[in-house]
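fwd from M.: "can u put these together and see what the complex looks like"

so here's what she sent:
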Amino acid sequence: MADISLSGVPHHVDGIQASYMAQVQRRRLYGGLTLLIFVVLMVSGFNVADDRNAGGFWDGLHQIGDYPADVLSEAWEKRADLPALIAKYFPALVETINIAAVSTLIGAISGLFLSLLGTRGLAKWPRLIPLFRRISDIMRAVPEIVIALVLIFVLGGGPVPAMIAIAIHTAGALAKMFSEVSENTDLKAVEGLASTGATWSQRMLLGVLPQVAPNYVSYTLLRFEINIRASAILGFVGAGGLGYELRNAMAWGPGRFDEAAAIFILLFGTIVFFDQVSSRYRNRLTEGQGQ
Amino acid sequence: MTTIDLDATKFEAEKLFQRKRLIGFGIPAVIAVYFVYIFFAFDLPGLAGRANMENAVTLASDSWSYKVHVTRDNRSGNVTYAVEGERKGTYPEGQRPDWVTGDEVITIDLGGDIIVRYLPDNRTEIEIPGFQLIEAQAEGRTVTTNLPDNLPDWISASDRRVGITTPEGRITLTGARTEVFNYFPGWELFWFTLDSPYYGQALATILFGDQIDPARDNITGAVSDWWNNDMWRHKDVAWAIGETILMAFLGTMGAAIIALPLGFLAAKRFSPFMLVRAATRRLFDFVRGVDALIWTVVLARAFGPGPLTGALAILITDTGTFGKIFSEALENVDQKQIEGVASTGAKPLQRYRFGVIPQIVPVLLAQILYFLESNTRSATIIGAITGGGIGLMLTQAIQTQKDWEEVAYYIVLIIAMVMFMDWFSGWLRGKLIGRKT
């Protein structure tokens, strides 16, 4: 017995070791190849982007600070005016936040319906699940700027095109996140309600929503953060709010940099403020879930 | 349990219900009030006045149809035929659409029995069923017609300009030129422009038929003519989409590469110095807070417009986001694995490599791939601001306010691009870290 194991084991271990080393080597090879392809893609991509850019990367690198320095120095010279300018642009800020808030609300409500109608087990019309999923996929895929630009042409500038554009994208994006949550809901409550003869909307309102509400609210808050940024960007293409004022202030160039600086400060402050507030609430919402 | 106890419990329960009822009605009420406020703050009642329904109609009809212009220059008497009135879409000398006939008198059959005749000496005759024969004479800068005083609303007339809109097409007459627009469904010249020998050929003829252009092989010639199509600029569009995806790729991957080491610095587990930790975190908050819009504006001053600027703007913003996510992931790693690696005598760097990285790679990859898809959308938007990629082509096409079929084409391409990136990142995630069930 002892003899057999003594003669058999070394050979056996050698075999295992060899095949293990071969496996490790192959893994290293694949890993190295993937890394190589990635590096090649990054370097060539950078070169292509550098070629097609108006100014080169290395020429521009030392100029990065120039514009912020110009803006800041001018703003510092006119620092006495800054509070007045911030007050002047405050209404534009309110408009930007309003665009984000309304579109998040509308998007969340539509996303809620889209997700419930597109989740197996909860859908009112199970046959139409693929339809609702495709609708939310397409709504999610459309960048806000596409709808905003088209609507600006039809409706004229102002907050409404931005609101509609962001709401459509938000509805699609939230529908996907919501349905990931609602797929994991406990169907017992829904079945219990169904046995009492509850209608679809009663089943959803009383059986599903209480289960998913913390996650839904958390995702909606995250979207609100994202939408504040989106609403500022859309302003830049003519949809009103702070972004629009920023573009105008920048178009004036030197001499009006204090206005640009005031808008920068407002935008930065708002984004950081809402990020902090919403991340605090989100933490509280998702912490409560774990217990 | 005594009665008093029960009463107290019942009272508590009732209070709870009352509070829930208040919240249940209160939140929808607050939302409704907010909507009312927005209704007036955004001036929705005034929207009807600002909205330009004519634009909407042009947009809706132009996006799926094209028009052929038949233009007579009233000074030289020359008649030109051009798709969308563009020079690139002009019919070559000696060619014209088959609904135009005649040499001395040019007869344009718009369909639906509407016939326009370009007569010699800058005279024009328009036959519209159910309406009198319209005769017009262009002289110098004026147009004289036999139109009666009370006109139907589809005709607008002054002594300088006459416009007639029919379901089949539009006719405008001015002193300088007489123009007929004939509308057709579809995207004309999408494959080949009029000067290409392959224009109007069936697909089967190009693939299997005789050689059309003596100088070139059918398939190579057709592909090159399509690729270099002046009207639809397929080559530029493909480059623009490539640029947009490149911006998203460079920005996302660059941000991930920079954020990973910074993430270690910001994580409590790996960075013992409070000051370094706090500084890194504030840096993340700062670059995230400044936002891609402002980074784009600042970077465009240094690097000029183009894809590199967009890529860098995405890179800087996402370094903040990734840094935050990565450092959170790093704080949640399991200590056991690191201890296991340490027990074999691994040095700190090896401990990170074999004890930490394998734990966070799935989280990192999932986030990076998710951002790759979402950044494709951001790159479209940033491209519209900083001037690169498909976003710029879209803005330009919208700003010219006439190429709505191109706008529709770009929108379809953008949606397809984003959906492709969505699918691709999901597929890659499945390949790399296994599909979650």
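replying to her w this: The mean pLDDT of chain B is 83.
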